[in-house]
Write a structure and sequence with these properties.
single chain, about 325 residues, alpha/beta, Rossmann fold, three-stranded mixed β-sheet, about 40% helix, globular
Length: about 325
């Protein structure tokens, strides 16, 4: 029997944020009924910036509260719980490591326990990260079975803990649960100016210097994926949880690029001008490189990225130009 989203009730933790907002947009398009649980629900959040506020029930609350999450699951009779709530900023993880652990690892355990003890345990899809694989400098594709590596921040281990817990809950308790590991996402309504694409577009719109600070030296080579491809990945995993419970899946855009080259590309797409971005981070002896092998997602889920980098960046630039409140 095929899975149907029509009338399917979903609870999305962190749903007013960037990835959650686009997931809600897709769920509405598919005929599902999403409820959002988030610490912050306001007109400045991506969910509202995309015009979805009136279409989605929003509950202000903490995903670390097991009783609250379980109560919402029981009240709504949600069939799927998408756990996206997290502290997603790498620099902040270094400044606030314990808070990051609470918001990433402990919140994942809380959501899992709420799902396990709900009157009708829902399907469970977890937003993990390519940070699971730590700091890497090899151009070889990273596969789901690769072990976690050491990292240069506290964000990575906080996501590793949740990632492993989800898969253990599936095996130990029979919870229908799986993990999505994503690389860098971009797209409309990303209000986080510490990420490279919104930072680039904001700089161009303001006419300020094309300066990306000292976090990177411009050589780091990463993969970039449009946020709607991310939303489609969440849905693809949820639809096939009967077959893939306990598994982890990599997702990415399939076109790795150095951060300096990405900044140059954004400049050209913005107005055709060649600007030289400034990256003042210390020069690395070994260039950082992280690209995920997404073949498993293609084979098991039928998922492949559908939005090319240039097309996605053009759309993103248009959105920022038309939405002054997001700058």
């Amino acid at each position: 029997m095929s899975f149907s989203w029509k009338g399917h009730v979903c609870l999305v933790t962190g749903g007013s944020g960037f990835g959650g907002a686009h997931l809600c947009a897709l769920l509405l398009e598919l005929g599902a009924e999403p409820t959002v649980l988030d610490l912050e629900v306001s007109e400045a959040r991506p969910l509202a910036l995309l015009g979805l506020g009136p279409m989605v029930r929003c509950v202000r609350g903490d995903a670390r509260d097991v009783g609250l999450v379980r109560g919402l699951l029981d009240e709504t009779r949600a069939g799927t719980l998408f756990h996206l709530a997290a502290q997603p900023l790498v620099p902040r993880s270094v400044a606030e490591p314990y808070e990051t652990l609470q918001n990433n690892a402990l919140a994942a355990y809380a959501a899992l326990e709420a799902a396990r003890t709900a009157a009708a345990p829902p399907r469970f899809v977890f937003a993990s990260s390519g940070a699971y694989y730590g700091t890497t400098s090899s151009p070889e594709l990273l596969r789901e079975e690769d072990a976690p590596r050491d990292a240069e921040n506290l964000y990575a281990p906080s996501k590793v803990a949740g990632d492993i817990a989800v898969r253990c809950y599936a095996r130990t308790f029979g919870l229908k649960a799986a993990v999505c590991r994503f690389m860098n996402t971009y797209g409309p309504a990303d209000t986080n100016s510490s990420r490279i694409v919104p930072r680039a577009v904001s700089s161009l719109l303001s006419g300020g210097s094309y300066d990306f600070g000292d976090r990177d030296d411009g050589t780091t080579r990463l993969d970039y994926m449009h946020v709607r491809d991310m939303a489609a990945a969440y849905a693809a995993v949820a639809e096939r949880l009967d077959e893939v419970s306990g598994e982890a899946f990599n997702f990415g855009g399939g076109r790795p690029m150095a951060t300096r080259e990405l900044a140059r590309l954004v400049s050209r797409l913005y107005d055709g001008k060649e600007r030289e971005p400034v990256f003042s981070g210390p020069r690395r002896k070994d260039t950082l490189c992280k690209v995920l092998d997404t073949r498993k997602a293609g084979t098991a889920l039928g998922w492949r990225p559908s939005i090319g980098l240039e097309d996605g960046l053009r759309e993103t630039i248009r959105w920022y130009r038309s939405t002054p409140s997001a700058r």
